[in-house]
């Protein structure tokens, strides 16, 4: 038998959350010239980070690598090219790419622009304190 003081508070119990309709930030009247993050996962206590990013037509993200985190990359609208150390990967709506940590890549949006969702483990926050 469990005492009522050991039961979780229903107000603090995690529940599924409907965050958005992914088609809304990427289309449905959105400014086609808009660039950057259209949506971010910002719920407190989360273990993941996620963003919907829009690149206008022919815009580029320069070559970079994520040294510590694997990233899932899902094309939600438009098209483009992901250039990796193994060559180009054509991107189109629905394409799901795994970017292992340490992998190098750049992005170029196609004629219709490119909107994509990225998901990765959340980085721990910085803490100010003394070094051990």
Automatic annotation (TrEMBL):
Q: Do you know which SUPFAM superfamilies this protein is assigned to?
A: RmlC-like cupins
Region (Disordered) spans which residues? 1-33
What is the protein's name according to its record?
Answer: HutD family protein
**Species name:** Streptomyces lycii
């Amino acid at each position: 038998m469990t005492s009522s003081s050991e039961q979780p508070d229903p107000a603090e119990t995690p529940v599924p959350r409907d965050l958005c309709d992914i088609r809304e930030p990427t289309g449905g009247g959105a400014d086609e010239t808009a660039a950057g993050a259209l949506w971010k996962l910002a719920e407190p206590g989360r273990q993941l980070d996620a963003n919907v990013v829009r690149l206008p037509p022919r815009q580029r993200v320069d070559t970079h690598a994520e040294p510590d985190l694997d990233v899932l990359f899902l094309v939600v609208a438009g098209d483009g090219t992901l250039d990796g150390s193994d060559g180009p990967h054509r991107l189109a709506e629905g394409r799901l790419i795994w970017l292992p940590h340490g992998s190098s890549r750049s992005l170029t949006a196609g004629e219709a622009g490119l909107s994509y969702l990225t998901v990765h483990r959340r980085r721990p926050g910085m803490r100010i304190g003394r070094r051990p």
